[in-house]
Amino acid sequence: MHDPLHQFEIHSLIPLKLEGVDISFTNSSLFMVVTVAITTIFLVGGMSRGKLIPGRWQALVEMMYGFVATLLDETAGIKGRKYFPFIFSLFMFILMGNLVGMIPYGFTFTSHIIVTFGLAMIAFGTATLVGFIRHGFRYLTLFVPHGAPFYMLPLIVPIEILSYLSRPISLSVRLFANMMAGHTMLKVFAGFTVVLGIFGVAPLAVNTVLTAFEILVAVLQAYVFTILTCIYLHDAIHLH
Description:
68% of the residues lie in helices and 4% in strands. The chain has seven helices and four strands, in the order E-E-E-E-H-H-H-H-H-H-H. A hairpin with a 2-residue loop joins strand 2 (17-18) and strand 3 (21-22). The mean pLDDT is 88.
């Protein structure tokens, strides 16, 4: 049976080094580029011939646009609309990256913690920067819950700070763990199917169900990552 974790290995396609630092173009880099290209073709192609009565392609693009716009309005409010390009780009990149990883012989770069942590730090850093730009040092009042007793602040404030700083960790681990676990499970049952031969019908059926479930998880995780980023922006814009 093949190692189910072999699919997550990074392979250098174009070896590059800069001042002793390995900056090689890898299979992960390749599928990030592929994801960006597919997303661009999907969005630009769908709207290149915009019609009053949209066709299927245009309707799908408009549905994605409307979904993210509504999500942002409901979580961050009207003042959050200026950050729509960032939120939409983040959602589409994660969604397409997850779905591209479902294609046979594809590579799921969102199954690597370094990638998801990088995306989480971008989301967390952007929200934090917005908070300080809009409110200055008054943004630090975010760590003081409204109505909290004064004598409880020495306990509450450290907890709030720890909770705030853990945001990029929870955000990145959630996406990474779900994608890695799902793909590992698919590979395990696929291995059982091959090994058992004619008796591999049961694991094949399970794998078919798991594939559909993993596609659902791919979409759901992109949604969860995006809505949490919107909530962080809400805190940065409105404080409490």
